[in-house]
Amino acid sequence: MHSRSEVQFALIRLIGVARAISAPELKDMIPVLFYLGTQLRDDVLLNGVLRGDGSQARLHSDDLRTCIEGRASLVAANTSAMLCFRPMLKNLSRRCTSQNACFTSLVKMVCDGMEEGVFAHADPLRDMTEWVKEGNSRWHLCGVCVDQLLMNHSEAHKAVWEELATVFHLAP
């Protein structure tokens, strides 16, 4: 098992290596590495982490800028991805036999989500499946509507994933 600082160091190092080497396999990883970089704590992003020899490993200033600016873009992408949970009939299943009850439940779900802060993140690839399934004991959406919401969210994830390079303003 690796310590958190070892993982953070490895990520910082990988970003630098992937940017420096022109291998297509590494170039394809850069958006994912920047995405992971945006999930680091602020102090790690700004100050780096200690290497084994006691020196500090930091992101290159351009990479730091990409991570910081990327966070803002990811908040926007998260807002877009979370629209699949917006209380609208189109977000529920067409096969639902109790749309009024499910609509009311969806409103409760969104209110709970806003109160819990689950929608306010710079992490649009965060899987909401467990939150939806566990929370549904309070909200009581029917099974086909839960399935529809999760399918909509999966499609939103896919759209964000496909645009990850664009989120970080990286050339294709």
Secondary-structure blueprint of this entry?
Blueprint: H1 4-20, H2 24-38, H3 42-47, E1 49-50, E2 56-57, H4 61-81, H5 99-116, H6 129-139, H7 143-162, H8 164-167
Antiparallel strand pairs: 1-2
Helix pairs in contact: 1-2, 2-4, 4-7, 5-6
List the main descriptive attributes of the protein structure presented here:
172 residues; mainly alpha; 2 domains; two-stranded antiparallel sheet; 65% helix
Structure description:
- With 172 residues, this protein is an all-alpha fold.
- It folds into two domains: 72 residues, no CATH class; 83 residues, no CATH class.
- Helix content is 65%, strand content 2%.
- It contains eight helices and two strands, in the order αααββααααα.
- It has a two-stranded antiparallel sheet with strand order 1-2.
- Strand 1 and strand 2 form a beta hairpin.
- The mean pLDDT is 91.
Total of DSSP H or I helical runs spanning 4+ residues: 8
Q: How many strand elements?
A: 2
Strand content: under 5%
Low-confidence stretches: none
Number of domains: 2
Query: Can you list the strand order of the major beta sheet?
Result: 1-2
The helix fraction, in percent, is 55-70%
Task: Describe the sheet with the most strands.
Answer: 2 strands, antiparallel
Shape: elongated
Order of helices and strands: HHHEEHHHHH
| Structural class based on helices, strands and sheet pairing | mainly alpha
CA distance, first residue to last residue: 35 Å
- CA-based gyration radius: 19 Å
Question: What average pLDDT do the residues reach?
Answer: 91
